[in-house]
Amino acid sequence: MSQNDNKKVLIALDYDDRQAALNFVKQLSPSECRLKVGKEMFTYFGPEFVKELVALGFDVFLDLKFHDIPNTVAKAVTAAAELGVWMVNVHASGGFEMMQKAKEALAKYGENAPMLIAVTVLTSMDQGQLLRLGIEKTPQDQVVYLAKLAQEAGLDGVVCSAQEAHLLKSQLGDSFKLVTPGIRPAGSDAGDQKRIMTPQKAVAAGSDYLVIGRPITQASDPVATLQEINASIA
Ligand SMILES: O=C(O)c1cc(=O)[nH]c(=O)n1[C@@H]1O[C@H](COP(=O)(O)O)[C@@H](O)[C@H]1O
């Protein structure tokens, strides 16, 4: 499985049309990006779609953000490993034992195990939304808190916003991977994202992987947009 860290862009394939997604993917090379399949495409098109992308040679991040009892999540990440995905995620708020059991379940796959990362605070959340959940910490403090829990549970990294990347790298070390959605090239629409950053600033802050969806997939020329972003962070 490729670990080429020069491929920082993970394209969020959030399409409701399988053929439209595949038409786009067929213009891409596995040497220039990785692909993320999330809840929308997985719910429409299932594991067969994921296997198809893996068979085309792409590293696939299966973004289903598992959050359930430890036994169920351990079995779900095992099912992800069976699909041959490169990365899979859980919600850190599912708890320490859930994360630990998920990591243990992947041990049998050795070096072929997918990277296991934990979502901290969604990039669509801000202080006001955390307060409405009864969480009085700042988003940054809550991200650091959950990231430390994920690291202690043995996970490979976290999903966070690039705004927290510098702090997390300084507190958790360089090898703990930071996957950052909420990436918005200058001038692009934030949409529902709250904690955003440009690709260049995200990489400078310490992001290992940039999850980018709409700024690429809804661009008038998605392939050219990917290439521009790759050039800007090279
Ligand atoms: O786990 C994720 O990938 C994720 C976590 C998070 O905190 N925020 C977030 O936006 N995502 C995903 O990243 C993608 C971002 O897409 P765009 O906002 O279109 O760039 C979507 O597929 C989200 O589901």
TrEMBL record:
Residues noted as binding substrate in the record, renumbered to the chain: 14, 36, 63-72, 123, 184, 193, 213-214
GO annotation, biological process: 'de novo' pyrimidine nucleobase biosynthetic process; 'de novo' UMP biosynthetic process
Presence of keyword Lyase: yes
EC number from the UniProt entry: 4.1.1.23
Active site residues of this protein: 63, 65, 68
Protein keywords: Decarboxylase, Lyase, Pyrimidine biosynthesis
GO molecular function terms noted in the UniProt entry: orotidine-5'-phosphate decarboxylase activity
Any Pfam family hit: OMPdecase
Catalysis performed (reactions): orotidine 5'-phosphate + H(+) = UMP + CO2
GO cellular component: cytosol
Main enzyme class: lyase
Span of domain Orotidine 5'-phosphate decarboxylase: 8-229
Pathway in which this enzyme or protein is active: Pyrimidine metabolism; UMP biosynthesis via de novo pathway; UMP from orotate: step 2/2
Description of how the protein assembles with itself and partners: Homodimer.
Function comment: Catalyzes the decarboxylation of orotidine 5'-monophosphate (OMP) to uridine 5'-monophosphate (UMP).
Protein name (database record): Orotidine 5'-phosphate decarboxylase
Organism name: Pseudoalteromonas caenipelagi
Taxonomic classification: Bacteria, Pseudomonadati, Pseudomonadota, Gammaproteobacteria, Alteromonadales
Gene this chain is encoded by: pyrF
